[in-house]
Design goal:
Elements lengths: L70 H12 L5 H18 L4 H7 L7 H8 L8 H8 L2 H13 L1 H11 L3 H12 L8 E2 H11 L3 H17 L8 E2 L12 H7 L17 H13 L9 E5 L17 H6 L3 E2 L12 E3 L8 E4 L1 H9 L3 H14 L18 H13 L13 H13 L10 H7 L1
Antiparallel strand pairs: 1-2, 3-4, 3-6, 5-6
Amino acid sequence: MQVGTGLAAATAVLCAVSMAWASTVETSLRPKVRPIVAAEAAQPAAVSTARTASRVAPVTSARPVLRPVTSIQKKADRKAATVIPAGKKSDFEAWIRGFRPRALRAGISAGIFDAAFRNVHYDPEVIRRDRNQSEFTKTIWDYLDSAASATRVANGKKALRRHKKTLDRIEARYGVDKEVVVAIWGLESAYGTFRGDKPVIGSLATLAYDGRRGRFFEQQLVAALRILQNGDVTIKNFTGSWAGAMGHTQFIPTSYQALAVDFTGDGKRDIWSDDPTDALASTAAYLARYGWRKNAPWGIEVRLPRGFNYAQANRKTKKMPSAWAKLGVVGMNGKPVPDYGAASVLLPAGAQGAAFLIFRNFDVIERYNTADAYVIGVGHLADRIKGGGAIQTAWPRTDRALTFSERKEMQRLLTRRGFDTKGVDGKIGPLTISAVRAFQRSIGMVPDGYASLRILKELR
């Protein structure tokens, strides 16, 4: 998990790249892009036969949507997304010429490079999507309404039944609960119905040239070229999201290289075709690599006692559930939560919303996407697919999420008042949460650390 002001906070969830997408975490719903370490290079063996995937009724993507805009703004956005600025085309072509020798030094053959870039062009739509990430402002409850909607749950159960034999083999091989694998599939591509249709090379080249996260996306671009060079996919079928995330469960190229598996045994790690077998197995392999514990919960909704010390609701404070029960933190049935392992208390909407004890498996899902809302979405959807019920505690639905500019304003005002957030980046991480708690105590509020509009108004 990343540290500083850039940790995931479910109070404001952004979009993230289709697959491992965006670099930082705090507000992204899509799997975030995370540096891959050398130890991830282990490749599990392939063991099963291919299965043909059948479609389920489509559901909308769980990724957040932009706030409503006027028809005039929509027209302006479309124009901006299709018109390439003067000089941009020639500059982009010059960048490709400069990138070519770097790619060849990294082991990419001249033939593969030239074939991959034959029809590549600068895509302003990709840049528009990248720039708009910070404006995504779904609350945790709005996000979960979509992530675990009745349609998504029903389609998840259908997918589980349809691919039961394959999923049973995957679960047996990797020790990862099949419902969690299906839930990730559901959030990432609506069970394969929205896999992305943008050319991966073009998207990554545009982002690498743009320079905002140029080093990261150039790394992904080299990895994508290696995927082509290895013959895992043809140029024609090499498609994904606007940010280069790929396949049924939206792997970024470096994650694909490190952890994708050939479960069907056909010699290719195929996450793009209609058959989801390799993609589902690759997701299980990914979770297994980071220590998934089978038949253990990601989190459990709990009740907090009156007078609860909200300073203890942080990721660093871990206790066994039996120890939490002695402090009055119990399951929704009023009984102590079983001792599945050390857990911390998570309050994604502050003291007025649901509380959870979260366990090791929460951290594992977080490696896939570091946004708290995404992790809760995956875990809760998996629980619902397995037959569990809805979250019982009511959310503070009259609240709205802070915009990116409002989050930065809050950080500036907190620091000005002596509650230093150690930077102004618009990301509600642990330092900002700690500053909010300190400010709440100073004015007699419940110190739950929830960065709400009310706190911003108090600061103003």
